[in-house]
Design brief:
The protein is built from eight helices and eleven strands. A nine-stranded antiparallel β-sheet has the order 5-7-6-1-2-3-4-8-9. Strands 10-11 form a two-stranded antiparallel ribbon. With 303 residues, it is of the alpha+beta class.
Length: 303
């Protein structure tokens, strides 16, 4: 599933090209892609058609378009799920056979400065785990607004208003393992399996180290590692393991070439040369170096 860097790459690609554009019409080809919309596909088309896109925002792994229908602003929320893509398309350049390839929702856009400037925004989703819906905007407490459905999501570590002191304080109260805490979107958003493993490798921490046993300086260092790996991933367009994650132009990111931990079981550790291992974690996989990220003694002794 796309994490903060991948979603931010998409947001940055969309924002300058769809802001101040009008959604002239909407075609819903698969009702599952708007399943969270009250009233279904018909209501979705009614809510969105004719609105102007003011800008594109993000919190954690969630993306939304701020829509203005002339009376109020609302949010068109997009969650990419495991295979969702938002692609900017010139329909004249696309063969019909491609048009039918997993395109679930199509938005016909017209520009505000040149009404003859027409393009399409496609929501493509092979597995249909992602989705789109319209939501009310609520005050985020800092002069901005977020969709009501995601107001419980914490700010992400790249957000200028992220409260680092609060994060450190709240994390150190927990008895759970550190990776479980990093994946809790109500504590810190945008971190998923890939970037959690990468940050833990950089910090030399085992994923099951108890949060309550970590010093303030260790947690601060881990947070810095999270930020560093995300900034580096953003610079390389995110992480793509297959063609299901692409930017708005259909291009893959290449941060997978820079990964030190995730997906590298059986490879030598880039730091010490020891063979990397894969372990089961919360119905998914976790990757670590058994030398640099040693299992906590409390787990080995059962205390």
């Amino acid at each position: 599933m796309p994490e903060l860097p991948e979603v931010e790459v998409v947001r940055r690609g969309l924002n300058p090209h769809v802001s101040d554009h009008r959604i002239a019409s909407v075609t819903v080809d698969h009702s599952r892609s708007v399943r969270r919309q009250l009233g279904g596909a018909q209501a979705f088309r009614h809510e969105v058609s004719g609105s102007w896109i003011r800008h594109v925002s993000r919190r954690g792994k969630y993306l939304w378009f701020v829509l203005d229908d002339g009376t109020a602003e609302r949010a068109l929320v997009a969650h990419l799920g495991m295979s969702g893509q938002l692609l900017l398309i010139d329909p004249a350049d696309v063969p019909e056979r491609v048009r039918m390839n997993h395109v679930r929702v199509t938005f016909d856009l017209t520009g505000s400065r040149d009404l003859s400037e027409a393009r399409q925004l496609w929501f493509v989703d092979q597995r249909t785990f992602g989705g789109l819906f319209v939501d009310d905007l609520v005050d985020d407490g800092a002069g901005g607004a977020v969709p009501m459905s995601i107001c419980h999501i914490a700010r992400d570590p790249l957000d200028p208003l992220f409260d680092e002191a609060r994060f450190v304080r709240e994390l150190r109260k927990r008895e759970s393992g550190i990776k479980r805490a990093l994946l809790d979107q109500s504590l810190i958003s945008g971190v998923g399996n890939i970037y959690a493993d990468e940050a833990l490798w950089r910090s030399r921490l085992h994923f099951d180290r108890s949060c309550s046993r970590l010093s303030r300086s260790v947690v601060t260092g881990l947070l810095e590692a999270v930020r560093d790996v995300m900034v580096e991933a953003l610079a390389e367009g995110g992480t793509s393991f297959d063609d299901l994650y692409v930017n708005v132009n259909g291009e893959s990111g290449y941060f997978d070439r820079s990964l030190h931990a995730y997906g590298r079981a059986g490879d030598p550790c880039d730091r010490c040369g020891r063979t990397m291992v894969r372990e089961s974690f919360m119905n998914r996989s976790s990757f670590r170096c058994p030398n640099c990220q040693r299992r906590p003694r409390s787990l080995e002794t059962g205390t």
